[in-house]
Amino acid sequence: EALLPEVRRFASSCPKTFAEDDLFASPVADDAWAEIQRRSEHMAEIMRCVGCDRCKLWGTMQTQGLAVALRVLFESPRADSPAPPQLTRQEAVVLVHTLERLSTSLQYLREFREMH
Asked: Could you give the subunit structure recorded for this chain (predicted)?
């Protein structure tokens, strides 16, 4: 429960690269949200077909983490409550894991750019 406000503060500190508020307030908001959910489910289906168990585990965790992050950041426009979405323990774990992996990747990229 304490993690979600931190994630929201982190999201608000990042620069806006596209106007997601406009996207989800537009007449096509329901279609856009359904497309995001469909693509997340499709990524999960692809991960189930991976042969290597280790790759399947890490890929599934990251896929689920991205889906949870999208749900937290871009809640369904049909949400009747202003309360933040409730995360299960598994969702919280994969979200933190995915944020760590993305952060580490960005750090490696920064270090690589400094070398060259």
From this structure: May function both as a monomer and a homodimer.
CA–CA distances in Å: residue 43 to residues 53, 88, 106: 16, 20, 22
Residue 11 — φ and ψ, nearest 5°?
-60, -40
Cα 61 to Cα 87: distance, rounded to the nearest angstrom: 15
**Distance separating alpha carbons of residues 35 and 11, to the nearest angstrom:** 22
For residue 88, which phi and psi values (nearest 5 degrees)? -75, 170
Give per-residue pLDDT as tens, 30-74. 787 788 888 888 988 888 888 888 888 888 899 899 888 888 877
Give the number of other CB atoms < 10 A from CB of residue 95: 23
- The whole model's pTM is what? 0.66
Q: Which two tokens stand for residue 59?
A: 């890929």
Question: What residues are annotated to the active site?
Answer: 52, 55
Angle, CA 29 vertex, CA 24 and CA 30 arms, to 5°: 135
